[in-house]
Amino acid sequence: MNNHSERQLRAIQDEYREKISLHNTFEKQQLALVAGVDIAYWTNGETDYGVCCIQVLDYQTKKVVEAVEYVGEVTFPYIPGYLAFRELPLIKEAIKKLTSAPDLYMFDGNGYLHHRNMGIATHASFELEKPTIGVAKTYFKVGNVDFIMPENKKGAYTDIVVDGTIYGRALRTRVDVKPVFLSCGNWIDLDTATEITMYLVEKESRLPVTTRYADLATYEARRMYNNSEGK
């Protein structure tokens, strides 16, 4: 993968892009397990490392039922717009450790809200063959379009529209906090993604518990591995 030219990477994205479906392939009442995915990086000497943490939660109780992590060397460079190629090897190795089978994955990052609609949540869906949602903490401008700040009310949102197409939403998950930037990954519609995200937000954070727990896990894992044995 790291030997591909940017043209080849774009071709891969374009091929997947044609297969994106922003329609539900599941019934929300059938969701049993949802997973949060996050990755953290660090450098030791001239070597880059990454850790992918996955937290699987019971959708009804919001309790963690399984947690796995994978640490490895990162060989794919950081190229804006192609982050999925850097992250997917770590994600796929972490997935192999799961004993449960999540019905839906949520990523700390974008999905359709990407200049070619191929953020990590969307790209990963084709590897995982599961519906996905992207929840990003910051907005990276798409098509020179700024987001409109939603009103200061829980559940308020404004759509991010690029060339007449809704790419995602600026979503206020709690009062008096910054919005998150929500987008479909694949095989889900935006209203359902919004409803699921809001259901999984609790008072401790503006993030849904899935990606919040994954974010906390990567923070701790990076601190531990970065301070031990050169990793």
TrEMBL record:
Keyword annotations = Cytoplasm, DNA damage, DNA repair, Endonuclease, Hydrolase, Magnesium, Metal-binding, Nuclease
Q: Name one GO molecular function term.
A: deoxyribonuclease V activity
Gene Ontology cellular component?
A: cytoplasm
Spell out the residues of the site Interaction with target DNA.
78
Domain of life according to the entry: Bacteria
Top class in the EC scheme: hydrolase
Annotated signal peptide = none
Question: Per the UniProt entry, what are the Gene Ontology biological process annotations, in alphabetical order?
Answer: DNA repair
Q: Chief location of this protein?
A: cytoplasm
User: Which compartments is it annotated to reside in?
Assistant: Cytoplasm
Q: Which Pfam families match?
A: Endonuclease_5
Entry's InterPro entries? Endonuclease-V (IPR007581)
Q: Which residues are noted in the entry as Mg(2+)-binding?
A: 38, 108
Q: Required co-factor?
A: Mg(2+)
EC assignment: the record states 3.1.21.7
The record's catalysed reaction(s) read: Endonucleolytic cleavage at apurinic or apyrimidinic sites to products with a 5'-phosphate
Function of the molecule: DNA repair enzyme involved in the repair of deaminated bases. Selectively cleaves double-stranded DNA at the second phosphodiester bond 3' to a deoxyinosine leaving behind the intact lesion on the nicked DNA.
HAMAP family, alphabetized: Endonuclease_5
* Family that this chain belongs to: Belongs to the endonuclease V family.
| Name this polypeptide is given | Endonuclease V
Which organism encodes this protein?
Priestia koreensis
| Lineage, opening ranks | Bacteria, Bacillati, Bacillota, Bacilli, Bacillales
